[in-house]
Amino acid sequence: MRRRKKRIMKVGNVLVKSRSQLDGIRESGKINTSVLDYVEEHIGAGISTAQIDRWVYDLTTEQGAVPAPLNFEGFPKSVCTSRNSIVCHGIPNEEEILKEGDIINVDVSTAYKGYYSDASRMFCIGSVSRDKKRLVQAAREAVRVGLMEVKPWKPIGDMGHAVHMFVRSQGYTVVEEIGGHGVGLQFHEDPWVSYVAPKGSGELMVPGMVFTIEPMVNMGSPDFYVDEGNGWTVYTADGMPSAQWEVTVAVTENGYEIMSW
After folding, report:
1. What are the two backbone dihedrals, phi and then psi, of residue 201, each rounded to the nearest 5 degrees?
2. CB atoms near residue 41 (< 10 Å)
3. pLDDT tens per residue, range 61-75
4. Buried b / exposed e across 209-220, counting CB within 10 Å, b at 16+?
5. 232 φ, ψ to 5°?
6. Alpha-carbon distance 238 to 140, whole Å?
7. Secondary structure (H, E, C), 39-108
8. N or C: which end of the chain has fewer CB within 10 A?
9. Among 62, 21, 38, 74, which Cα is nearest to 183's?
10. Does residue 8 carry a pLDDT above 90?
11. Degrees (nearest 5) of the Cα angle 186, 33, 254?
12. Rounded mean pLDDT of the chain?
């Protein structure tokens, strides 16, 4: 039997999902969240980032899904593990062992029956410094501040502006050139989502739009560099810590629905 082609609706550059497509993304999100829950229960000092990658691959495939990062544009692993001064796209490896005092972002993305979800969490390994703990908490609160601005028929820049103002109020910076993205029918879709956007700018948030809120919050400068060796891993330019939480959110008629966090 030929599979029915997905119906695609667009408003501007925004892919608007149908009810059945939202159901598919929601199911993908459930798997994605369950994988993050497992990582949260088992992560700790002495664990290698390669072990986290194995957990993610095994738990995702056991549920009939695929880790979306694996081989995406050449990325070699099933998950991104970004520790301390790594902003994003950390590549798991056997030699990287988590230690007391580390902070780490674990970014899980799931493809299930053609539907995608994407979320990440920060983890504090053992007893971390007060400064690192405050950074992690501020990054999480920045996502909540952004969610409060997700309402139909408002510009997405209102959300990005609110996030930026909150992060600045905490004494931190937001990485400007790396943002969020639409998600659902593909791993990365339009629109690109900025967290330093001016208020009133960007696409309108319309019911059925699905995107990520994932500001990358740096303790120091917002500047970064990319590892020349692997072409993926992004580090803070000043070597100071960075933190990020990510949520997949759908715009509804009355506000929003979290698909994975």
Report:
1. -100, 165
2. 8
3. 999 999 999 999 999
4. bbbbbbbbbbbe
5. -125, -50
6. 22
7. HHHHCCCCCEHHHHHHHHHHHHHHCCCEECCCCHHHCCCCCEEEECCEEECCCCCCCCECCCCCEEEEEE
8. N
9. 21
10. no
11. 70
12. 95
